[in-house]
Specification:
Layout (H helix, E strand, L loop, with lengths): L9 E6 L4 H16 L7 E7 L5 H15 L5 H8 L2 E5 L5 H18 L5 E5 L6 H10 L13 E5 L7 H12 L7 E3 L7 H11 L13 E9 L8 H7 L1 H18 L8 H14 L8 H4 E6 L23 E7 L9 E7 L6 E8 L17 E7 L3 E10 L5 E10 H5 L6 H11 L8 H19 L8 E2 L8 H4 L12
Parallel strand pairs: 1-2, 1-4, 2-3, 4-5, 5-6, 7-10, 8-15
Antiparallel strand pairs: 7-11, 8-9, 9-10, 11-12, 12-13, 13-14
Bound molecules: NADP nicotinamide-adenine-dinucleotide phosphate.
The site of NADP nicotinamide-adenine-dinucleotide phosphate has 19 residues, from α1.
Length: 494
Amino acid sequence: MLQQRIPDPCALVIFGASGDLTRRKLVPAIWHLHHQGRLPQAFHLVGVARRDWDDDLFRQKMRESLAEFVGPLDDSARDAFLAKFHYVRGDPGDPATYVALKARLEILDRECGTEGNRCFYCSVPPQIYRDIVEQLGRAGLSCQHRDHHGWCRIIVEKPFGHNYDSARELNQALHSVFTEEQIYRIDHYLGKETVQNILVFRLGNSIFEPLWNRRYVDHVQITAAESVGVEHRAGYYDQSGALRDMIQNHLLQVLCVIAMEPPSSFDAESVRLEKLKVLKAIRPIRIGQVDRYAVRGQYGPGENALGYLQEEDVPPNSRTETFAALEFTVDNWRWQGVPFYVRTGKRMAKRTSTVTLQFHQPPHLIFAQTDALAPSTLTIRIQPEEGISLSFNGKIPGPDVHLGTVNMDFSYADSFGGRTPEAYETLILDCLLGDATLYSDSDWIEQSWALLTPILDAWQAPSSGEVPSYPVGAAGPEEANELLGEAWRKWAPL
Ligand SMILES: NC(=O)c1ccc[n+]([C@@H]2O[C@H](COP(=O)([O-])OP(=O)(O)OC[C@H]3O[C@@H](n4cnc5c(N)ncnc54)[C@H](OP(=O)(O)O)[C@@H]3O)[C@@H](O)[C@H]2O)c1
């Protein structure tokens, strides 16, 4: 039986503790870790924000968030958990905030046994990340001082930069205060059970890996579709768009996990190295090639649904894409000639994230069936209805040889039951344990932006033409179908 690892005693400091992410995701995730006995006895959480709260009000707000996002809890267990919460009021750009924070952390070290171990979580709007990093450095809170006992790590939320130059600048700012080993750049897709299971599926079985290459795979599709529009995030989303919001981070990470070579061991260094090799093997799309390899779209109005341009806080002339589809070519022995199609969009037919490997057709068909055979596919459902299905042709019972498509299906819920941990639980625990396997490193981030920045530049150019519109509930604009080129290639149904 595998022994559960418990992190060292520590304090988790959340900048932006009054925000949406803290209440909806972080505090519920930390509750689940606490409830499962995955946190050390001496675990304390320090919230930092400008809001005029104190310890009591912070605990009260987090009690409400637990009620909303976890459900009814035993009062004494919940209150014992919240007693470990503390609040430091201050602006993340103000040095005085860090004087107060340092004093509070030292009290926790002395009186509550957190032993000088600190994890700082930047859960503020991205333009504030740099302030926090610089102020932590100036206040001597990066644990670089030789008199400091204990470790120190920093988690940086997404988005990490908005193009190649800004990501590089943020990396430089971080590296001027922290070493790369101290920096954890979050991509919550990597914390999802189904994404981690891709590696287990590929490398924990010997039957799939022999098929996992150009000899058997015709192409790969990676889809992340949402049925909702921008909701209350229009201010952020209009500056971002689908390419930055979903493809630069989540979908490229999934592509890397699908395409990477088997690492020699499951440790951060080996896994990151193999994923980086995939990114470096992707053929860059130059500005002049963008129309051939990339399609964008914007959702129009539908029945009972506003179009993107009518949404609150969206400029009426916005050219931000709410849909993006790209074709990537991975130039290596394993994947030569196998296109990787990646697409994401809002207000599509349904919410679903999947990876589909479509296999080659048989080289010669001996059956008299005239209509085209459906190709065999392997579909990994990342969310919802997490699972894997293999679809292939079988004989329909009867005197004639008629072929029909059948499915073999594995469902997480049916096979394993229970509650699937949220990505944030896995990622926060990993960081407290010092395991960066599921986090992005600086080289990966910069390389991903280097691949996408020419596309962003081409789309932002005034001469780049109209952004095609697609109806609410569609699978994106018509133009996305042309991306697949060959007639037998079709986007997997949503
Ligand atoms: N929410 C999500 O589901 C989600 C998902 C993925 C990634 N993220 C990322 O996680 C981070 C936090 O997201 P969030 O939705 O929680 O953000 P948020 O609610 O907009 O902001 C978090 C907190 O940051 C503080 N803040 C806001 N503007 C500030 C400013 N100009 N200067 C100093 N402090 C400021 C505010 O606290 P005070 O006003 O009290 O100081 C606010 O409560 C962002 O980088 C976001 O991109 C969020």
